[in-house]
Specification:
The complex is a heterodimer of chains A (351) and B (369). Chain A is built from four helices and 23 strands. Chain A is mainly beta and 351 residues long. Chain A has a five-stranded antiparallel sheet, with no helix packed on it. The longest helix of chain A has 6 residues. Chain A starts with 6 loop residues before the first strand and ends with a strand. Chain B has one domain: Neuraminidase, CATH 2.120.10. In chain B, the strands form six sheets. In chain B, strands 1-10-4-3-2 form a five-stranded antiparallel sheet, with no helix packed on it. In chain B, strands 11-12-13-14-18 form a five-stranded mixed sheet, with no helix packed on it. Chain B has a five-stranded antiparallel sheet with strand order 15-16-17-19-23. In chain B, a hairpin with a 6-residue loop joins strand 13 and strand 14. The chains are: A mainly beta (351), B mainly beta (369). Strand 22 of chain A pairs antiparallel with strand 18 of chain B.
Chain lengths: 351, 369
């Protein structure tokens, strides 16, 4: 509603059809015309500037007409866009309008990138981009690319999904680095090689042409630089993880030190802390220090007792190796029953 | 003799299908109202004019009764500058819309297009007399079921579901079952679901995976991009196209909950490409498979060749971009973005033509005779 821009347009008539002065209002979600100047209920709105001669051959915008007291409303199926021209046609009268972007409009930004580390394994599998507001997901992967140190865009680096993987709130985008190239011995890997090479520098580039759901672009391109190191071919092992146990009757954070950077998407909501009654401890989770530390801030003070931390087997490192299996998984049987998730848990006691 | 048996089986199947179509119990759970569709990613028609919509955003499948739409002759349909036309209808620019799928109701030849607008409003359009019309979705006869994963024992507070997205890659209906393939942002895994229709409480989850022809050592976990349920050598099979273009066959009766299967790779269609849509067309007793691709022409494969190919590709494809396995021919349609059957033995496409024009048009059925 902040940007529900409304404008009263006093139109000095063009002299057509004897109408010399009329007014109508419009905003992002409707065009409103006083009934006394709209003899019929029929209001037609077109995309762009359309002349009267062109109205019969032009495609009207989909929307609903509503009548209330002395006012007729045209409600478009999707909101009108900023900085776009529209034509309103009613009573043989043509009027034009557009909605300028509000001066205080906050442009789309990238607030976080995961992984945040600058040294990444060559078999890195996923990236997550956190935007400041919901994005236009249509054909979104074409705005994202990896660029080598020499400035060349790496072809076939990103899995181009028709339906982008975006969180429900529309702000977190998942990018798969082409798995067929990252996984050893697949045809794309054999023919094109891994996407990244050891000891080389790269940039993740997100074009400013990427738009929010209002159709407004970012102000500038986004760059994330990183250097590639050896591939990670080991499963994460929770037995090597260290716990910093919080103090009883405090609100201090429970910290879990991974021995490496952990994948954001598969870990942030997949670690569960249970008290000695088996009840889930409520709190907020964050990943710190290049996603090498999991921090859990409780909603209530810690009580003395025994606790268990459950880790979902789907938790992955940056190379897609999860707690149960390697991403490059060697299999010997042609068919097998999927093994149920193993319990991966650590215990700690607050004294 | 083989042809005769096939004909008899086909006749029996056709009879059974017509019985299902006449079965009003398919819609016994339907109610009138707003199904709350948040996105339309993939669509397919079942019997009795029921359109199934895969809605990844709301994690649901919705079945809508569109049997009352009039029977049309869309055999000469041709809509040019389709992207401009749709963006004009939305009052927006071309980059703000995406045509996510196209489905034809085999019972009455209505063509439906699903559109996602950047604002998130899902839109369904229908073609009538070469004109696009909006199909309102807020007051329809429908039933629906969830696509949310069952809550695991350890996730007692539903943790882990917030970020989990499951994007529907393809959806098909056969014999009282709705089949879905998809990809999660959590794991790179080929999940395949089978949901009974009318919708009940149970869903089967399978993991259909493949050995890539280049090796026999590592499983790929690649997601199925597009598939069709079909009959191969008299047996019910799923014919699946993967993102890196192997064509794989899975026996339908092996798709059981919790099981993991390795399919039989019958063709490599050349790397650097991804299949987009797949349909089966029957014409004068011959069956053909048509495959639309991201970076290859529309392919036609004869089911006779598919059925005759008993092996499984295991040797590496050495020549870059080369194809192996069951033979196919390239039809003169490139950049086909959407593909479906039209009428008894035709097909309809949305194609980016060499002039740049995005056209919705029928394919020439001469190619599948």
């Amino acid at each position: 509603m902040k940007y529900l821009f409304s404008a009263l347009l006093i139109v000095v008539g063009y002299g057509m059809f004897g109408q010399t002065s009329q007014n109508f209002t419009f905003n992002k979600n409707e065009v409103i015309i006083s009934k006394d100047i709209s003899e019929t209920k029929n209001i037609i709105v077109f995309n762009g500037e359309v002349t009267e001669e062109e109205t019969s051959s032009s495609t009207p915008i989909l929307g609903k007409i509503k009548e209330k007291e002395n006012t007729v409303y045209f409600i478009p199926l999707v909101p009108f866009g900023w900085n776009q021209k529209y034509t309103v046609f009613y009573n043989h009268t043509i009027r034009y309008f557009s909605l300028p972007i509000p001066k205080d409009y906050e442009s789309l930004k990238i607030s976080k990138i995961f992984p945040s580390a600058s040294r990444l394994p060559s078999n890195i599998l996923k990236w997550y981009i956190k935007f400041s507001k919901p994005i236009n997901k249509n054909n979104i992967y074409k705005y994202i690319r990896f660029v080598s140190d020499s400035g060349d865009t790496i072809p076939r680096a990103i899995l181009p999904l028709e339906n982008a993987l975006i969180s429900d709130d529309g702000t977190l985008l998942t990018i798969w680095v082409e798995p067929g190239r990252q996984k050893r011995n697949l045809i794309p890997n054999k023919q094109l090689g891994s996407v990244f090479s050891n000891n080389k520098k790269y940039q993740l580039v997100i074009s400013k042409e990427i738009k929010d759901t209002n159709g407004v672009s970012m102000l500038e391109d986004f760059y994330k630089q990183f250097i590639i190191i050896n591939a990670d071919r080991n499963k994460p092992n929770i037995r090597n993880w260290q716990i910093k146990i919080p103090i009883a009757d405090s609100m201090s954070d429970l910290l879990i030190y991974f021995e490496e950077s952990i994948d954001y998407g598969s870990s942030i909501d997949n670690i569960l802390i249970l008290d000695d009654k088996g009840q889930s401890v409520k709190g907020d989770c964050t990943l710190l220090n290049e996603e090498k530390i999991f921090s859990f801030k409780p909603k209530k003070q810690w009580k003395k007792g025994k606790y268990e931390i459950y880790f979902d087997s789907a938790i992955e490192d940056l190379a897609g190796n999860n707690l149960n299996r390697l991403f490059d998984d060697e299999i010997h049987n042609t068919s097998k029953i999927i093994t149920p998730s193993q319990n991966h848990k650590l215990e700690f006691i607050i004294k | 003799m083989k042809t005769l048996i096939t004909l008899i089986i086909t006749s029996i199947l056709s009879f059974l299908v017509s019985q299902v179509q006449a079965n009003p119990s398919l819609k016994k759970d339907f109610k009138i109202g707003d199904p709350g569709i948040a996105s339309i990613h993939k669509m397919t028609f079942g019997p009795a004019g029921i359109l199934f919509i895969g809605d990844s955003k709301a994690a649901q499948v919705v079945a809508i009764d569109f049997s009352e739409h009039p029977t049309l002759d869309n055999s000469k349909v041709k809509l040019d500058n389709l992207d401009k036309l749709i963006s004009d209808m939305m009052g927006t620019t071309i980059d703000q819309i995406q045509i996510t799928d196209m489905a034809v109701n085999p019972a009455n030849n209505n063509i439906y297009l699903s559109i996602n607008h950047s604002s998130g409003v899902p839109i369904l359009l229908r073609v009538e007399d070469n004109v696009l019309k909006q199909v309102p979705l807020d007051n329809v006869s429908f039933s629906k079921t969830t696509l949310l994963d069952p809550i695991s024992e350890e996730a007692k507070d539903k943790r882990g579901r917030k970020l989990r997205k499951w994007a529907v890659a393809d959806i098909k209906y056969i014999d009282g079952k709705l089949l879905l393939s998809g990809l999660s942002n959590k794991e790179f895994a080929s999940t395949f679901r089978s949901i009974d229709f009318p919708f009940g409480d149970t869903q089967d989850y399978s993991s259909l995976e493949i050995y890539h022809a280049a090796h026999g050592k590592y499983e790929t976990h690649a997601p199925i991009k597009t598939f069709i349920p079909t009959t191969i050598n008299g047996k019910s099979q799923v014919l699946a196209g993967y993102t890196c273009t192997p064509l794989v066959i899975f026996p339908m009766n092996k798709i059981k909950s919790g099981e993991h299967h390795k399919g039989r790779t019958v063709a490599e269609l050349g790397s650097g490409n991804s299949p987009i849509d797949m349909i089966e067309i029957e014409n004068e007793g011959n069956r053909y498979l048509l495959i639309a691709n991201s970076n290859r022409a529309l392919m036609k494969m004869d089911f006779k060749d598919l059925e005759a190919y008993q092996g499984s590709l295991t040797k590496p494809v050495v020549k870059k971009g080369a194809a192996e396995g069951v033979e196919y021919v390239n039809l003169p349609y490139v950049n086909v973005q959407q593909l479906d059957r039209m009428g008894d033995n035709g097909f309809i496409i949305i194609q980016r033509e060499s002039s740049g024009n995005l056209a919705l048009k029928t394919g020439n059925s001469w190619w599948v005779k």
